[in-house]
Specification:
By secondary structure, the protein is α+β, with helices and mostly antiparallel strands. 42% of the residues lie in helices and 28% in strands.
Length: 162
């Protein structure tokens, strides 16, 4: 069983911010696009393949479906961010205060989803998706969800690209 906390190098008591930072650091260091050498690239692809928006993992077979996992975060804008965003709308362009709020909220929901999957013994999540709903004016729910599964290699000869 994959322990995502161990992979990220953080304790189970790590905050959502610490988990997000550790994931971002690993993504920068080990993302497949960073490697020109085919062997290193394949190794990196293997590392990142266990979380996917697809409904199957190349070269793996699902041995057990554990059901839906989710992470839900409900956030509201604060008055200072609203004032800052209002000023940014005057000049146009990306409203960075709200962009950061949205990114942080999605990341928190994603982290909670992974925590939920880990708690029930999953080593992969397939069909990962996001959804958002405005609960009331200025209050939004963000939901990250997917199907928690236990996977194993389909065969020793299978490769990620086959």
């Amino acid at each position: 069983m994959t322990n995502y906390y161990e992979i990220l190098g953080v304790p189970r008591t790590a905050s959502a911010s610490e988990v997000r930072s550790a994931y971002a650091k690993l993504a920068r260091e080990r993302h497949p696009d960073r490697f020109a050498d085919p062997a290193e690239k394949a190794k990196a692809e293997e590392f990142f393949k266990n979380l996917t928006t697809a409904f199957e993992l190349p070269s793996c077979r699902v041995v057990r479906n554990l059901g839906v996992v989710r992470g839900i975060v409900v956030r509201s804008r604060n008055i200072f961010a609203t004032i800052g965003a209002g000023l940014q709308t005057i000049v146009g362009g990306n409203i960075t205060v709200w962009t950061k709020l949205c990114e942080d909220t999605r990341a928190d929901a994603f982290d909670i989803m992974i925590q939920h999957a880990t708690e029930i013994g999953a080593n992969a999540i397939v069909g990962a998706r996001y959804d958002a709903t405005e609960v009331s004016a200025g209050v939004t729910e963000v939901l990250a969800y997917g199907t928690a599964v236990i996977v194993e290699p389909a065969s020793t000869e299978a490769s990620y690209r086959s």
